[in-house]
Amino acid sequence: MRFPKPHTLKEIATIINSDFIGDSDFPVLGMNEIHVVEAGDIVFVDHPKYYDKALNSAATIILINKEVVCPEGKALLISDDPFRDFNTLTQHFKPFVSANSQISESAVIGENTIIQPNCFIGHNVKIGKNCRIHSNVSIYDDCVIGDNVHIHAGTVLGANAFYYKKRSEGFDRLQSSGRVVIEDHVDIGANCTIDRGVSGDTLIKEGSKLDNMIQIGHDTVIGKKCLIASQVGIAGCVVVEDEVTIWGQVGCTSGITLGTKAVFLAQSGISKSLPGNKTYWGTPAKEARMVLKDMANINKLPELFENLKSKK
Q: How many CB atoms within 10 Å of residue 256?
């Protein structure tokens, strides 16, 4: 998330009541999660295991829970609870604004786009030309939809990321300030849920087709011309490259990459990054031909046992 205007390190420290290391006029341009940070961004880290990754990332302001040596050209914000203070900054720069109409006055809707009854279109939503949005679709604030997009009934775009920190009193949610971006010629079936990015974008690229009842997690990128069948669940921060086919009831863990033109057969469980141009099956998913070969060998075991008995 980029701020509406640049701020100084001192201004940001004042908002969260924290100490800082660096020039008080050090420029702060935005805030992001570590996988999408750019120069001028704040990133937070609250576990020693990830200190080096955060300090050496593209972010130039690190919100951290321990005073450490500050890398050259960067600044630190010292906090007893970086998770809490990252939320405080999100709420400050991107507060929730309640709606007072089914279609916000700030929404921009292109020509020849049809929006069926009982839809909700939030603040600052942009919808392109020749789209068809069927009944009971909810499009949360800041979503961007391209041209010639079809979205079927009951789908929700832009719900919060499923991202929590466990505390003694329960689970604390990381506030979401990102967007959902849908490019041109995308079809989205009924009752799909596509979560907004925590601070960046969840992206469905041009020409991809989604069946009914699909869950796409926060900050995930679906490539061009992908096919995803019903009841697929894809966790956050996944990269699905172009022309990938995912058949029904596949589950995919977070933070991995699925290579171009990979095919995942029904009910596969994807637990790690996998290269493209291959067909996968099973849990954990591996090349389908190997799974079938293993199954054939297992089916031969009774015959092998009988042969061993006959030789005794």
A: 17
- Assess whether 218 carries a catalytic annotation: yes
Q: Which of 7, 134, 185, 218 is catalytic?
A: 218
CATH 3.40.1390.10 fits 2-93, yes or no: yes
Contact 77, 12 (CB under 8 A): yes
Given this model, what pLDDT does residue 295 score? 81
CATH superfamily of 110-291: Hexapeptide repeat proteins (2.160.10.10)
The pLDDT of residue 305: 74
Q: Which of these, 218, 121, 226, lies nearest to 163 by C-alpha position? A: 218
DSSP 220-236: -EE-TT-EE-TT-EE-T
pLDDT of 135-159, one tens digit each? 999 999 999 999 999 999 999 999 9
